[in-house]
From TrEMBL:
Residues 453-619 form the K+ potassium transporter C-terminal domain. GO terms for molecular function: potassium ion transmembrane transporter activity. Belongs to the HAK/KUP transporter (TC 2.A.72.3) family. This is Potassium transporter 26-like. It holds the Pfam family K_trans_C. It is a multi-pass membrane protein. Keywords: Ion transport, Membrane, Potassium, Potassium transport, Transmembrane, Transmembrane helix, Transport. Residues 44-339, 343-444 form the K+ potassium transporter integral membrane domain. The chain crosses the membrane at residues 97-120, 140-159, 171-191, 217-236, 248-268, 288-308, 347-373, 379-398, 405-424.
């Protein structure tokens, strides 16, 4: 067993094979928050799920993301009040595999919808900014607008590859100018056209509006969602700024500017109802039209770039927690990591409100289990926001046929990948857990094998036990290196792991055989050279060496070269299972295995140092 405490004294030789060597860790594994700016942003659903995973032991064998707990994990629960009283909801959640699965699948759905949101944001933002150019001339058609949008988006994505740091310096000035301009123009329109328009802030006008418009008002409620879709950007910006600065910026700049802008447009429409389709640009004074057009387009690019970076970041975090197959993530900056109009608008609104609704469910669970807020208060929060967001959700249902189906198609695409991957992983882990080499078999296998000079780094997903592929390897190779290390890369639901706490080691019963768990948070940089990786492992192993002979063996092995062994497992589901499950494992999961990266692909390993061992598991 591996933990972070001092090793106890060995009193008898009979007990020696039962007591693991404890690793000396100076500090308990914990979060390390960077003081510098970061562009990594968790989606609300994924952030909440990450928090739950720190506090709730998800133990179900059929879980999409299997959880293995170590003794050193106990102190990861830094967010709670460390109360000795466990809430009933916590006990229920830890004891209910169904509840754990429901939460996990809700998170996967919400995360996939956020990815769909990221796919739609560049189109809706740029199109909204550019479409106003039609108000300048009747000769400018929708086709011209679409062409201009396409050109801007192509340049945006071409520039995106050069990194967030190349363009981020201009974000704040552009947004500041944007808010000052829309507030000033809104105030000008209010004074010029209808100063009493600010009465609309009074809540009782909500009742008057729906009483007068009835069904038409209900359908327009869904359009209001587009006025609040930018709210999620505030949570994304928590990666850049602290909470107080965002609160101050929103309260003193963003909210007042939006109120003045919308009130000014309403005042303009009272006197110019025929300009409804081009309200924003038609309400701009003539001398400010082109400056405003440029600023609006630049603001749309800023919003698009932020969501593009956030989408990449979300995928990276999904990979870190095992919810998405491994893909290549090219970070272009050492400082920053990741950073048809009406129809797109309908789709965008549907995506956002569903994500909000899922987030409300998850945050209620977090409030009760982690923050230990009074159940009545948490229930009131849940009821209020579920009713409010539910009303928006229902009002948007009629827009599904008008383009609102798009986010569901995008979500379905990502869900097929995510669920196929996580289901295949769960079946693979289940098979390996049930077919581990027991201790006596492994000792006998090592004793009967020839030991040759050098180091063997055997990469495995298991943190406990010897995987069955080792049996397959020894049967065909007939020898083992003098130093053998089973390495497992473990991704924790924390931001970062301290460098000196990166490795956890355990000495297995056979001489010269060790287990190493390499721990990463979901924001850690994992790019390491193979030699650097092995030197770090050997240096840490020497700290737990029992005598000089063991240290000499390690130095000798390091001098005689190393081999990284990767197991390539092919799952084949037998005919005993239904055709749907067989299709997922035999086709979808196998396709993902072939076309996505391996577990230790972040290491820069020379091909001459790798050996791949293939085996087929029939499940």
């Amino acid at each position: 067993m591996i933990d972070g405490q001092e090793s106890t004294a060995r009193e008898t030789n009979d007990q020696q094979h039962e007591i693991s060597v404890k690793v000396r860790i100076r500090r308990v594994l914990r979060l390390r928050f960077s003081n510098g700016p970061r562009s990594d942003a968790l989606s609300g659903t994924f952030a909440l799920y990450s928090l739950l995973r720190q506090h709730v032991n998800f133990t179900g064998k059929t879980m999409p993301v299997p959880v293995t707990r170590l003794a050193s994990d106990a102190n990861l629960k830094f967010h709670s009040k460390k109360s000795s009283l466990q809430p009933r909801m916590l006990k229920f959640l830890e004891g209910s595999v169904i509840a754990q699965a429901v939460i996990t699948y809700l998170v996967l759905i919400g995360t996939c919808m956020v990815m769909g949101d990221g796919a739609l944001t560049p189109s809706i933002s740029v199109l909204s900014a550019v479409q106003g150019i039609q108000s300048r001339s009747s000769r400018i058609t929708q086709g011209h607008v679409v062409l201009l949008c396409a050109i801007i988006l192509v340049f945006l994505f071409l520039y995106q590859r050069y990194g967030t740091s190349k363009v981020s310096f201009s974000f704040s000035p552009i947004m500041l100018v944007w808010f000052v301009l829309i507030a000033s123009i809104g105030l000008y329109n209010m004074i010029k056209y209808y100063p009493p328009v600010l009465k609309a802030i009074s809540p009782h006008y909500i009742y008057i509006f729906f009483a007068k418009n009835k069904r038409a008002g209900w359908e327009q409620l869904g359009t209001v969602v587009l006025c609040i879709t930018g709210a999620e950007a505030m949570f994304a910006d928590l990666g850049h700024f602290n909470k107080k600065s965002i609160q101050m910026a929103y309260s003193c700049l963003v909210y007042p500017s939006l109120i003045l802008a919308y009130a000014g447009q309403a005042a303009f429409l009272i006197k110019n109802p025929s300009k409804l389709s081009t309200t924003f640009y038609s309400s701009i004074p003539e001398p400010l039209f082109w400056p405003m057009f440029i600023v609006a387009t630049l603001s749309a690019v800023v919003a698009s770039q932020a969501l593009i970076s956030a989408s990449f970041s979300i995928i990276r975090q999904s990979i870190a927690l095992g919810c998405f197959p491994r893909v290549t993530m090219n970070h272009t900056s050492k400082k920053y990591e990741g950073q048809g109009g009406p129809e797109i608008g309908q789709a965008y609104g549907v995506a956002v409100i569903w994500v909000m609704l899922i987030t409300t469910h998850l945050i209620t669970v977090v409030m009760v289990i982690i923050w230990q807020i009074n159940i009545a208060l948490a229930g009131s929060f849940y009821a209020a926001y579920t009713v409010l967001e539910g009303l928006f959700t229902i009002s948007l249902l009629y827009k599904i046929a008008q383009g609102g189906w798009v986010p569901f198609v995008i979500t379905a695409f990502f869900l097929i990948i995510t669920l196929s991957w996580t289901y295949g992983r769960s079946k693979k882990n289940e098979y390996e857990t049930n077919n581990l080499m027991d201790s006596q078999e492994f000792i006998k296998t090592v004793a009967m094998s020839n030991r040759v000079p050098g180091i063997c780094i055997f990469c495995t997903d298991l943190m406990k036990g010897i995987p069955p592929i080792v049996r397959h390897y020894v049967q065909h190779m007939g020898c083992l290196r003098e130093l053998m290390v089973f390495v497992t890369v473990r991704y924790l639901s924390v931001i970062s792991v301290l460098h000196e706490e990166r490795f956890l080691f355990d000495r297995l019963e056979a001489f010269g055989v060790y287990r190493c768990i390499v721990q990463y948070g979901y924001m850690d940089n994992q790019n390491m050279e193979d030699d650097e990786y092995v030197v770090s492992i050997i240096a840490s192993l020497k700290e737990i060496a029992q005598n000089a002979d063991e240290v000499a063996m390690m130095d000798s092995a390091l001098a005689n070269g190393l081999t990284f062994i990767f197991g390539r497992v092919i799952l084949k589901m037998s005919d005993n299972h239904n055709c749907f499950k067989r299709f997922i494992i035999n086709n979808l999961y196998r396709f993902l295995q072939k076309n996505f990266r391996s577990n230790l692909s972040s290491l820069k390993i020379a091909p001459s140092k790798t050996l791949q061992i293939g085996i087929q598991y029939e499940i």
